[in-house]
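Exercise 7b. Backbone tokens:
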């Protein structure tokens, strides 16, 4: 059997098809991996943002509670001083 140009072209086309399929597989794999990495990074950033917002809200609540507590402490101190002064003046 003679080896013809058509046979050579057929073998070359099969080889190029296999190379193209392998190249496409690795490109798709890299694309999916980079998409997953991006999704994980975005998810992590959003979780970090939520955590920071929650911490800021808790800090604000703590500061408000401490401010109210300080105001009540000052009121109680003033009342105690008034009672002591009234008792001392009543002698």
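Sequence design result:
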């Amino acid at each position: 059997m003679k080896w013809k140009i058509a046979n050579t072209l057929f073998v070359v086309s099969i080889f190029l098809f296999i190379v193209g399929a392998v190249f496409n597989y690795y490109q798709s794999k890299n694309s999916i991996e980079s998409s997953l990495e991006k999704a994980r990074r975005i998810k992590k950033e959003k979780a970090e943002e939520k955590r920071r917002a929650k911490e800021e809200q808790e800090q604000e609540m703590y500061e408000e509670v401490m401010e109210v507590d300080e105001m009540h402490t000052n009121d109680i101190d003033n009342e105690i001083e008034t009672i002591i002064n009234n008792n001392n003046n009543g002698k």
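Instructor comment: The longest helix spans residues 5-89. Helices lie at 5-89.
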